Predict the structure.
Amino acid sequence: MYYIDPHIHMVSRTTDDYETLAKMGCVAISEPAFWAGFDRGSVDGFRDYFHQLTEVEPKRAAAYGIQHFTWLCINAKEAENVSLSRDVLKIIPEFLDCPNVLGIGEIGLNKNTPNEATIFQEHMQLAVEHDQQVLIHTPHLEDKYQGTRMILDMLADHTSMERTRILVDHVEEHTVRHVLDAGYWAGITLYPVSKCTPARAVDIIERAGKEGSRRLCVNSAGDWGPSKPTAVPDLILEMRRRGHSESFIRKIVFDNPRTFFRQSKHFDLLDPATRNEG
Ligand SMILES: [Zn+2]
């Protein structure tokens, strides 16, 4: 089955991973800007990273027939440094016209601090000014519920942006309803250990029902740490095991991310069924 991984950090992965993803049916990925595993020392470090995301990575992906899209920001962890964050916010517009940029992300909160909240709001302002979609990271474990509430409260200030242009990621059982009921898209991240397994993700999808699952996406969030870039095919397998129809599975792993991304003027996905014909 063709699928899209809407959240994966391919700069941290090998070409072997691209090859495996392609063989498993992955036709497109979207890569949000995130924390590199260390704090970058200057705005030039971010300029190089944005260059990598907009020029280098799409070529690596194309070698395996995968379309590469990206989102730009300074992540919540480094947003603790407000002056560096403001320098990074100033250079982001230089890259917004690059053909694979879908919007601003993954912004959000890490430890739910006032500095993180300040920079979150400044990113939202930038997104509104430049008519960009937004992809949002919610904090992990014990900080998730409070962080998600804080994010939803802050988003409520931005009435000029349609809620269907915002995806709140890494939802779990206790946060998904808040996100969907408020009218946003929600992302479920599959982790190989400890967090959301394919079985838990399918439980969440089933509980969301027909209406809720219209705005649900599933991703691997594969990065430089323990993670599994092929986690979306694991979900496909789990859904088949439970007897879900092929069309419903396709909706979750392909149609839904495509519907969300299509709101960006740069999202132009070739139809995988006909891309090599004529
Ligand atoms: Zn991420």
